[in-house]
């Protein structure tokens, strides 16, 4: 049984979340709190597996609550965010503070889809309870500042040598992705001799603030992509939410393509479009990176990428919030390397150099 604490200042929202979560017989809401102070007390009293945490609350808001929680009673946290620019900023900051994922308050638009997504995310995060607690216990013992990362595991041995330099890096990522993408991009050198394209499953309101946060944290330049952008070395482009990113050839030169097609894609952006178009356009000049995420998006595109001579790195299970997208490419035998999140930036530098 997955034990959940709900934190929201709206009684309507608290009741709705209880009803939606408990539609799954494997989920039990063991406590509900109206604000951050009450949430911290409930966390100490209940042995919960996951907390859903509202961003905007009286007395103690979501960010302050999250910081205290990770010091006293660390557990996986799902932020419940409003679809506003301020909500996006706060949610992205919350993921830096240790929240593992977020969900948008779209309950009034499609309660069925919201409930399904909520239950799926809570069940995925519950599996990270033990490693979350162990990580923050180690940080406390070491008297280090709290920063979201994974517990170090033994190095992985899956490895196929890369022959030749690569000047395009394409990254696919979903659940738990923002902190990992920031970890990787912020560790890259200014003179990286490659362009980077990122397809992160994220709402349209979030991708602009996300790109700005990454740009401020990184030595390379990071921006939200615009259709027709030129591929610049030392520059990373984040796909706008609700659209797709890929590569098109114009006068024999590759450029960034931002498109609405395919309109029926389950995810927007879909990693499949990015991986497939990059492979078809630039072949053995491409390094693909598949990061944490739920589902299988990107696997079909990765097949094309590998067929065309591309090289592929998959994030390790131990360092993923959700081992879905990387697992899919590993199970298909498409990954040349399987690496912990901490090791991917250096692998990108090494592979780009050839």
Structural notes for this entry:
- This protein has 354 residues and is an alpha/beta fold.
- The protein folds into 2 domains: 2-142, Rossmann fold (3-Layer(aba) Sandwich); 168-353, 3-Layer(aba) Sandwich (Rossmann fold), CATH 3.40.50.
- It has helices spanning 11-21, 36-45, 62-72, 85-97, 111-126, 129-142, 177-186, 204-217, 271-282, 299-307, 325-331, 341-353; strands spanning 2-7, 27-33, 50-54, 77-81, 101-104, 168-173, 195-200, 221-224, 235-238, 244-250, 253-259, 286-290, 311-315, 337-339.
- The strands form 3 sheets. The protein has a 7-stranded parallel beta sheet, sandwiched between helices.
- Strand 12 (286-290), helix 10 (299-307) and strand 13 (311-315) form a beta-alpha-beta unit.
- It is elongated and about 60 Å long.
- The model is unreliable at 148-155 (pLDDT under 50).
Could you provide a short overview of the structure?
The chain is of the alpha/beta class. The chain is built from 12 helices and 14 strands.
Using brief descriptors, characterize the structure shown.
alpha/beta; seven-stranded parallel sheet; 354 residues; five-stranded parallel sheet; 12 helices
């Amino acid at each position: 049984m997955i034990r959940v604490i709900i934190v929201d200042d709206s009684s309507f929202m608290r009741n709705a979340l209880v009803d939606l979560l408990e539609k799954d017989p494997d989920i039990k809401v063991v406590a509900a709190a109206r604000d951050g102070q009450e949430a911290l007390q409930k966390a100490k009293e209940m042995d919960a597996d996951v907390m859903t945490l509202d961003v905007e609350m009286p007395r103690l808001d979501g960010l302050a609550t999250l910081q205290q929680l990770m010091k006293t009673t660390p557990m996986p946290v799902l932020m419940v965010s409003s679809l506003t620019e301020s909500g996006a900023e706060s949610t992205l900051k919350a993921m830096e503070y240790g929240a593992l994922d977020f969900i948008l308050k779209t309950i009034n638009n499609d309660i069925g889809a919201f409930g399904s997504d909520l239950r799926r995310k809570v069940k995925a995060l519950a599996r990270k309870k033990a490693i979350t607690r162990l990580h923050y216990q180690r940080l406390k013992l070491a008297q280090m500042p709290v920063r979201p990362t994974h517990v170090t595991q033994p190095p992985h041995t899956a490895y196929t040598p890369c022959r030749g330099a690569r000047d395009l890096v394409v990254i696919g990522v979903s659940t738990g992705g923002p902190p990992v993408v920031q970890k990787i991009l912020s560790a890259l050198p200014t003179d990286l001799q490659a362009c980077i394209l990122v397809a992160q499953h994220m709402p349209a309101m979030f991708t602009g603030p996300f790109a700005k946060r990454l740009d401020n944290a990184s030595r390379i330049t990071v921006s939200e992509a615009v259709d027709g952008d030129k591929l610049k070395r030392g520059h990373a482009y984040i796909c706008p939410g609700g659209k797709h990113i890929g590569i098109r050839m114009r006068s024999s030169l590759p450029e960034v393509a931002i498109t609405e097609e395919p309109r029926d894609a389950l995810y927007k952006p879909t990693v499949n479009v990015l991986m497939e178009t990059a492979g078809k356009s630039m072949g053995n000049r491409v390094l693909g990176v598949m990061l944490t995420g739920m589902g299988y998006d990107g696997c079909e595109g990765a097949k094309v990428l590998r067929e065309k001579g591309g090289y592929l790195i998959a994030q390790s299970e131990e360092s993923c919030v959700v081992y879905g997208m990387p697992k899919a490419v590993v199970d298909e035998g498409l990954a040349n390397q399987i690496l912990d999140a901490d090791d991917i930036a250096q692998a990108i530098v090494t592979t780009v150099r050839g």
